[in-house]
Amino acid sequence: MLNGKILKNGKILVHALQWYIGHSCNLTCTNCSNFNNFAISGQEKFSDFEREARRWSEKLHVNDFGIIGGEPFTNNDLDNWVHGLRDVFTCKDFRVVTNGTLLSKHADKMKAWFDRGVTVELSFHSQDHVPKAFKIIDEVLDGKYEKYTVTKNNFIKDQARHAGCYYEEAILVGDHPAFIINYKDKFMPWGVKSVDNGVYNFYESDREQAHTACWHNDCPYIYKGKMYKCGTVVGAQAFVKKYPVRQQDKDLYESYKPVDAFSNTLEEQVSALSHSVPQCVLCPINSGNVEKISLDKKKVMP
Ligand code: SF4
Ligand code: SF4
After folding, report:
1. Which burial class, exposed, middle or buried, applies to 285 when counting CB atoms under 10 A from its CB (0-12, 13-18, 19+)?
2. pLDDT of 26-47, one tens digit each?
3. Does domain 1-288 sit in CATH 3.30.499.10?
4. Is ligand 2 within 6 A of the CB of residue 106?
């Protein structure tokens, strides 16, 4: 576990930080780790959390910063989020993560993002989404780019980039990875385990085993200006408000309290995020086995 270490510059190390800008997503990928495949929704505006962004950037040393959701391209305020967060998080690696299906919505903004060192991470969940996305890439970059196939994880031409993110290709404009691309059509089990008589059940795992096996166990999220252990807890708090679940599961997710950027005990609380949380019992103990993503469901309200 890397996160929580106090560096010589007095800042708290958080290697990869994700800033979650809204629950809404247009897709329904089975086993989405943040419950965004369900009909949870809601978008946030940058101006409402600018103060918290400045505070976190003063306190944290971040190597790889990501804007995430939900699907960030559904958020009408995305351009303000990108520029606003880029102003304060000046790390070399800065990404906006997207499923690639809605690039046209903010395509006219992207060139200005690339000029500021922003990378768009395309995480494709179906081959059906690829041709349309590449058409937009061609238009945005006017065909002037190099398509690079990654041969060593997290390296682009002998330069470490986006360490910890898995990507297979990059679209380079000069030295800058304007896009990094991964093709994920399989996920490990996550989220809801089953539905019985209209009640949505989670897993019942050993807390430490689930946490040790979890791929997101050192991947804090910031939502509404506060820091959470992981995206699963962020999405789950919205999910249990809307969907029928056992009362004890709802109570457990709702009992989670994120870290306030202005807390007097910030260092201790951020360090503690490297440990398991009681909510880990509701996640599976993943063995690495993956299941093909199904995208054929329409979003249905409970
Ligand atoms: S995996 Fe990504 S694209 Fe799929 S439902 Fe979740 S947030 Fe949406
Ligand atoms: S609650 Fe625990 S096990 Fe579940 S995703 Fe978060 S860190 Fe992983």
Report:
1. middle
2. 999 999 999 999 999 999 999 9
3. no
4. no
